[in-house]
């Protein structure tokens, strides 16, 4: 067994107008952007699946355009998570997961379930949601990541629930949303959202050094000592974990360069 999981870093999506000049080669057609982007970074978080429904041929196409070893994280559709009673999300969840996501095969990374900042932690309500999460879809194993955006989740009970259902709590490096670094699944998912277009690599060199070190710590099965946890009393089992790190939101123009710079540090 290897002593470390695989670290993959990427950005949100591959179509963003400023990237036409900052990231993509001159005269590269829009149709070839995914092909190019998926060879610069080992993973991309797909935001479009949150807003729109896609059909199986689209997922087949995405799988065919990316190289071996590349992984897509998909943001779960908003109709699943934006509801007052989470336990009633079953039908929407089945519709989303049954839309063809399994056609990505081994290129299917975690499913990111993002909750609104107004959604407060209600243990019964949240557990009802976690009970709905399937382990497989059409024979393909699923990994689930939970991005909560309300401070009421910074309690040991939330970490315990995520652990019970083997879902990963998303670590958010964000100006407003809570940062929760408890390791609760067999992989780690971080969204780095406080970059800047003034930095050529989205984050400062010092910031990238720090995140590369944390990613390595997570991959080796340990927990970074400098990040806040909701349940500091409970340590995750020490085992190698795959780590997904996405440069999102602030500094989006430079996000692909942040992902590439992080991968260089991890490799070097």
Enumerate the spans where pLDDT stays under 50 for 5 or more consecutive residues.
Answer: none
Q: Per the principal axes of the C-alpha atoms, what is the gross shape?
A: globular
Domain tally? 1
For the record, the CATH class is Alpha Beta
Query: What is the tally of beta strands?
Result: 11
Query: What is the fold named in CATH at topology level?
Result: TIM Barrel
- Structural class, from helix and strand content? alpha/beta
Strand percentage: 15-25%
Mean pLDDT: 97
The biggest beta sheet is recorded as: 9 strands, parallel
User: What is the H level of CATH, i.e. the homologous superfamily?
Assistant: Protein of unknown function UPF0759
Task: Measure the end-to-end span.
Answer: 22 Å
CATH architecture: Alpha-Beta Barrel
Order of helices and strands: EHHEHHEHHEHEEEHEEEHEH
Can you offer a commentary on this structure?
This protein is α/β, with parallel strands linked by helices and 268 residues long. It has one domain: Alpha-Beta Barrel (TIM Barrel), CATH 3.20.20. The protein contains 10 helices and 11 strands. It has a 9-stranded parallel β-sheet with strand order 8-7-4-3-2-1-11-10-9. Helix 7 packs parallel to helix 8 and helix 9 packs across helix 10. The longest helix is centred in the C-terminal third of the chain and has 15 residues.
Please tag this protein with its features.
268 residues; alpha/beta; TIM Barrel; two-stranded antiparallel ribbon; 10 helices; 11 strands
Q: How are the SSEs ordered, and which strands pair?
A:
Blueprint (H helix, E strand, L loop, with lengths): L6 E6 L6 H4 L10 H5 L5 E4 L1 H4 L4 H10 L5 E5 L2 H4 L8 H8 L10 E7 L8 H10 L3 E2 L2 E2 L2 E4 L8 H9 L3 E2 L1 E3 L13 E8 L10 H15 L22 E9 L4 H13 L1
Parallel strand pairs: 1-2, 1-11, 2-3, 3-4, 4-7, 7-8, 9-10, 10-11
Antiparallel strand pairs: 5-6
Helix pairs in contact: 7-8, 9-10
């Amino acid at each position: 067994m290897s002593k470390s999981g695989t670290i993959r870093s990427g950005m949100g999506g591959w179509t963003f107008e400023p990237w036409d000049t900052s990231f993509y080669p001159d005269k590269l057609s829009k149709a070839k952007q995914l092909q190019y982007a998926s060879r610069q970074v080992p993973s991309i978080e797909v935001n479009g699946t949150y807003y729109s429904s896609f059909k199986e041929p689209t997922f087949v196409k995405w799988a065919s355009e990316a190289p071996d070893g590349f992984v897509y994280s998909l943001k779960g559709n908003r109709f699943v998570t934006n509801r007052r009673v989470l336990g009633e999300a079953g039908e929407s969840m089945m519709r989303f997961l049954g839309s063809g996501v399994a056609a990505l095969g081994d290129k299917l990374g975690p499913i990111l379930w993002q909750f609104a900042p107004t959604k407060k932690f209600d243990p019964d309500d949240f557990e009802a949601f976690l009970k709905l999460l399937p382990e497989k879809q059409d024979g393909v194993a699923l990994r689930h990541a939970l991005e909560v955006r309300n401070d009421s989740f910074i309690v040991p009970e939330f970490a315990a629930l995520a652990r019970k259902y083997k879902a990963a709590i998303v670590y958010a490096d964000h100006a407003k949303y809570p940062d929760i670094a408890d390791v609760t699944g067999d992989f780690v998912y971080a969204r780095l959202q406080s970059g800047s277009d003034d930095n050529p690599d989205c984050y400062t060199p010092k910031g990238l050094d720090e995140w590369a070190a944390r990613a390595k710590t997570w991959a080796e099965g340990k927990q970074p000592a400098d990040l806040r946890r909701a349940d500091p009393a409970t340590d995750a089992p020490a085992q190698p974990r795959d780590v997904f790190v996405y440069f999102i939101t602030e500094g989006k123009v430079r996000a692909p360069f942040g992902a590439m710079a992080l991968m260089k540090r991890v490799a070097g």
